[in-house]
Amino acid sequence: MALMDLQERNERLPYKLLINNVEESLPVVYMPTVGKACQKYGSIFRQPQGQQKMFELLRNWPEKSIQVIVVTDGEHILGLGDLGCQVMGIPVGKLALCKLT
To answer: Domain total for the chain?
Structure first.
């Protein structure tokens, strides 16, 4: 939650914190914490990120600089069951890990 709050104010700072503290951060950014967060995602969701930029994001698709795309239908991820849109914490966590590399 604290990293999400920080990211709303400064998009880059949470990643700087994660990069400087990788070993300590992995359990927070990914499993097991993200699984618990997914089960409560509907109650902790803050605001959409990138929703207003969808066409801009799609226009960038042919760019060679895109290295990772994470896609999910939200169905039965990591044995959490079918959580629907609440499973968005999984792709968000995966992308956070990709940004660290």
So the answer is: 1
Confidence at 1, pLDDT banded by 50, 70, 90? low
Is 15 known to be catalytic?
no
Is residue 41 annotated as a catalytic residue, yes or no?
no
pTM of the model: 0.49
- Domain membership of residue 33 (yes or no) is yes
> Is 58 among the domain residues?
no
Tell me which residue range forms the domain holding 33.
2-43+69-100
**Catalytic residue among 15, 16, 30, 53, which?**
30
Identity of the highest mean pLDDT range in 15-19, 77-81, 92-96: 15-19
The DSSP string of the chain is: -HHHHHHHH-SSHHHHHHHHTHHHHHHHHSTTHHHHHHHTHHHH----SSGGGHHHHHHTTT-TT---------SS-TTS---GGGGGHHHHHHHHHHHH-
48 lies in some domain: no
